Amino acid sequence: MCTSNFFLVTAMVMQIVAMSESEYPSCCSLESLAFANMAFVLGLFVLGPVGAFLVDRFRRQSVYRSSLLVAAAASAVLYFGRSAEIVASVRFVEGMMYGLAQVALGSTLLNDLAASELRTSSDYSFAWAALLAIPAGAGLACFLMGQFGFNVVIAVAIIMLLLSVVLVSSMNVPFRAPIHSAVFGLDRFWQKNDMLPFLNLLFISVPAGVFIASLSSPLYYALAAVGVVAAHSVRRAVFRNADVRAEIVTGLVCMCFSLLIFMLRDTETPCRVAAFMFGAGISLASTRFLLYFLKLTGHCQRGTAQNTYLLSRECGYALGFLLAFIVPVLVEMSLALLLLSTAFYLLVTHPWFMRHNDRGFRFREV
Q1: What angle do the packed helices 268-295 and 246-264 form, to 10 degrees?
Q2: What share of the chain is helix, strand, coil (3-state, %, to 5)?
Q3: Are the C-beta atoms of 207 and 258 separated by less than 8 Å?
Q4: Which of 154, 186, 255, 266 is deepest in the core (most CB within 10 A)?
Q5: What is the DSSP secondary-structure string of 222-240?
Q6: First and final CA of the chain: distance in angstroms?
Q7: How far apart, in whole angstroms, are the C-alpha atoms of residue 10 and residue 6?
Q8: For the CA atoms of 236, 238, 243, 246, what is the dihedral angle to 10 degrees?
Q9: Closest CA relative to residue 66, chosen from 160, 178, 164
């Protein structure tokens, strides 16, 4: 399931990066395309209230397959037109299907098939796979754009979606009788008491959206992906006995230092180090925040917490991508956001969480 999620997120990221490349036709401005891409986030919220009903009423694999096939068909529309209106329509449909697919896969199938004692670590790995897909998809899109052009990027993105469908279809999922649930509801969509972590993670994710939109070198994205993998590989050994805040704060500090390097140095080697540090930092900070969402849930609300976490990250990425085309001082803005996010986390989010979490506070679970 982590591999399926990786392919899904990679396909979505590839398209948004390809649209921002300079080779893109001049039928509309990049600013218009950035606003059009915001339709993706709007789409995430459209089917959210009916997502639980659909996965309870129909087969979970069927919901996932149908969502990705519709998303693949929508992506193919970009072969025939790339105006801001068409891009907005395509991204809106993709956002709806992506949100529904995540409800079916991450908020339902993942929790249904994982053993109860392994669900937290499974959720963590699932979120990490999506995070790794962001620099991987962006780097792949930049490389393909430089070598083959926009149409090949879209073709590869569609292939990624179909591979994800094949992987999920090949899974052995036990039969479950349809469950009669309300058509509209917040189940597996929105956890109302997660607002502070939601806002905190959203602002942390904004610089990641700026990072995606600002770079055009596949090498930088590759180094960021290596940073994501490296941080995930060593974090348990490094933070095993550390304070529960250490991992997030370390990640935020890495991101801040990487932005300082980008701001003060314009030579190749320091910027490569900065890209690596940025990937490692967002990996540490973003994935660890998932536990804050999970620990604020009530009974049988794990899927709702996962989707709220997803919405927070996606809103931050989309906002950062938009700001990258309308704000002239990107690095300074991103650095200021990260410093404010760090202060907000230490002074507001974490103390509030310690007073309101509903479950045993065991950060050593993953």
Answers
A1: 150
A2: 80, 0, 20
A3: no
A4: 255
A5: HHHHHHHHHHHHHHHHHHT
A6: 18
A7: 6
A8: -100
A9: 164
Q: pLDDT tens string for the chain (366 positions)?
A: 789 999 999 999 999 888 876 445 455 677 777 788 889 999 999 988 888 888 888 888 889 999 999 999 999 998 887 788 888 999 999 999 999 999 888 877 887 777 777 788 888 889 999 999 999 999 999 999 988 988 999 999 999 999 999 999 888 777 665 667 777 777 778 888 888 999 999 999 999 999 988 887 899 999 999 999 999 888 878 887 777 788 999 999 999 999 999 888 777 888 899 999 999 999 999 988 988 888 876 656 788 888 899 999 999 999 999 898 888 888 899 999 999 999 999 999 999 988 877 655 454 455
Task: Quote the tokens at residue 205.
Answer: 């994710």
CB 321 within 8 A of CB 213: yes
pTM above 0.90, yes or no: yes
